[in-house]
Amino acid sequence: MGDFSSLGLSDWLVKQCKQLGINKPTPVQENCMPAILQGRDCMGCAKTGSGKTAAFVLPVLQKLSEDPYGIFCLVLTPTRSLAYQIAEQFRVLGKPLGLKDCIIVGGMDMVTQALELSNQPHVVVATPGRLADHIRSSNTFSMKRIQFLILDEADRLLEQGCTDFTKDLEVILEILPAKRQTLLFSATLTDTLQELKSIAMNKPFFWESKSETRTVEELDQRYILTPEKVKDAYLVHLIQTFTDEHDDWSIIIFTNTCKSCQILTMMLREFNFPTISLHSMMKQKQRFANLAKFKASVYKILIATDVAARGLDIPTVQVVINHNTPGLPKIYIHRVGRTARAGRNGVSITLVTQYDIHLIHSIEEQIQTKLKEYPVVEKEVLKILTQVNVTRRECEIKLESTDFDEKREINKRKQLILEGKVTAGAKLTMAFVTAHNQYFPARLWESNLQLNTSRLKFQSSDVHLT
């Protein structure tokens, strides 16, 4: 593996990388960047934490420095949080250029976004649906000079709903020049992803990591076998042990549900751990604020649902704890990929109950690695068991008093309406519930909604952050 200069990067970009502690290219960068710099279309598939974002940001910045005029690059990505992270990488690496970027995602004011687009930023990072909305409703900006179209996490764009994405992509492609470079990057190569190859026509270069279904060598993967009722005591003990042994530390804890995420956050705060949460029940501004505070080390512990499992790039994260064993190996890989990123070391610890043994075996088979048992002093865990269980129950009671479950159900219905999965009658019911929630009994709302959506099954897995 050579250095960035050998890949064809300009001296100023090599210097900028070194100042940020990026000294050697990762495999995806080493293989894809020369082809991109040569003007070829590119599809790159590599596991999370492999440096995919920099693999397209650096070549784009080099080309931009040669012709810095108008909207030069469009990046489409599936989620708002990922859009902000990509834009941040463009800003940091492109600082010497005085780069102007624009983020076009849902949940933000359309008028403000339209003004930003009309100012002709160099780079636009967008979710497809919101950008398509702007194209349909406005003619105040032009993308005729775009040199790069980039689809990041392309497999997830398709997972969100191939029909909707295809419609939005068609709207976007109509206003883009035919002569451009198209770059597709993904963590996994799926069958549906093959459909996107048709939009990459300029001597397309394809590269796939041979270890895309495995975890990185720098990751120390551990497990703790625990009874379900003792799991939280083990969690508190783990955090206490780690904080006592390290001065500089940062932990992400993954859990299955929004409710569990909220309860664990409340519980750990009762033990004076600097904890913050990230889940889809929060408003968008709150999620961004919480993520910024964690990245700035204002809070050392982030508890998150799988909404944050992919694309979250925080180099300082040293430990990932799975409060529950993921049901699928790919979810496990995405979670633990939040640490040991870009050549750094990291530790992952999964709390495994007697009901999860088969899941661990499936994970080990997929990643071709045996998880090692994490050493724990059982007596220390037993000392805090009663206190932890009492504290958790108190937090559950507090959360129940806030009508958290009812708000969660409302959010589920709102999401289904946005996705077009609820009938018009149900939308009217939803509007009434939203306006008069405190006066409308939840069970009455449930029965009315079921009359209009009798064939729908509402599950937590139906809700995705976009």
From TrEMBL:
CDD domains: DEADc_DDX49, SF2_C_DEAD
Record function comment: ATP-dependent RNA helicase that plays a role in various aspects of RNA metabolism including the regulation of mRNA export and the levels of pre-ribosomal RNA. Regulates the stability and synthesis of pre-ribosomal RNA and thereby regulates cell proliferation. Also possesses antiviral activity by recognizing gammaherpesvirus transcripts in the context of lytic reactivation.
Leader peptide range in chain numbering: none
Record family assignment: Belongs to the DEAD box helicase family. DDX49/DBP8 subfamily.
Keywords carried by this UniProt record: ATP-binding, Helicase, Hydrolase, Nucleotide-binding, Nucleus, RNA-binding
Residue span(s) of domain Helicase C-terminal: 218-382
Entry's Gene Ontology cellular component terms: cytosol; nucleolus; nucleoplasm
EC number of this enzyme: 3.6.4.13
Keyword Ion transport in annotation: no
Residue stretches making up the DEAD-box RNA helicase Q domain: 2-30
Domain of life: Eukaryota
Name of the protein this chain belongs to: Probable ATP-dependent RNA helicase DDX49
Reactions this protein catalyses: ATP + H2O = ADP + phosphate + H(+)
Gene: DDX49
Motif (Q motif): 2-30
Domain Helicase ATP-binding: 33-207
Cellular compartments annotated: Nucleus, Nucleolus
